[in-house]
Amino acid sequence: MRSNRRLRLTAIPLAIITTVALAGCTTQQTLGWLPTEPGTTNQVDRVIGLWVTSWIVLLAVGAITWGLIIWAAIVYRRRKGQTGLPAQLRYNMPIEIFYTVVPLILVLGFFAFTARDQAEIEAPLADPDVTIEVYGKRWAWDFNYITDDVFYQGIQAQETGPNNEIDVDSLPTLYLPVNKKVEILIESRDVLHSFWIIDFLYKKDMFPGENETNYWYFIPQKEGTYTGKCAELCGEYHSLMLFNVEVVSQEEYDAQMDALRAQGNVGRLGAEFNTNANLPGTTGTTEEE
User: Fold this and answer.
1) Whole-structure pTM over 0.85, yes or no?
2) Taking Cα atoms as reference points, which of 172, 204, 199, 202 lies closest to residue 185?
3) Between the N and C ends of the chain, which has fewer C-beta atoms within 10 Å?
4) What is d(CA 244, CA 237) in angstroms, rounded to the nearest whole number?
5) What distance lies between CA 158 and its chain's CA centroid?
6) Are strands 242-248 and 165-166 parallel, antiparallel or unpaired?
């Protein structure tokens, strides 16, 4: 009877605290503090669901584990006047099976749901409306708008003022039409980089060399300005390898393509501009030639 009473006294406050904490969750907390909003692309809701559900399961497992630890510490603590050691058990087969099988089920479950969602995200979109080739380079970005046959050549982030603040207006900007199927071809001009649009909750590695193109398919669903960066340590100015993403209407997107065309940025900045293209031992040209 005393054990049951102590268990109730432990469980009731824990339940109250958990209920109050969940009731006071902000919108950001319900997203698991992810830096986005639902519906930003056709993929973010899937990532949010996987992330938040995983944390709920893990928090439940943690709460049960800590509850059992606290319960055992209270119920089986040494009482006043007790001496010696309690009865020692070599093993308890049901408990050992339990704490082996349950973690195995959790790991397999996390793997299965992650594999399912990743397969959906990685699936190509049929007949993309826009195809864009992104080149990462130390320490900036080139954007080839293949569908419109124009390009943008970026420079690394510029620092200004005594506090080395980033000049946002000078950052490379990638334009995307809202509610259109987008295909991104992802490549590197020199070393390993990683193309990361933070609010889109996904990133893809960029590998140097021929036949190393990576692909990303998605549909941007909310107009706005988003931030991007390289997520792979790539050298001295890695922290300045930043860019912006503008998701705009089709009319504004077409106007930006016309503006690039008017600037003479017609065509494609291809692999001929890769850093390693003209090194000895490659198929490119050298100074000796």
Assistant:
1) no
2) 204
3) N
4) 17
5) 25
6) unpaired
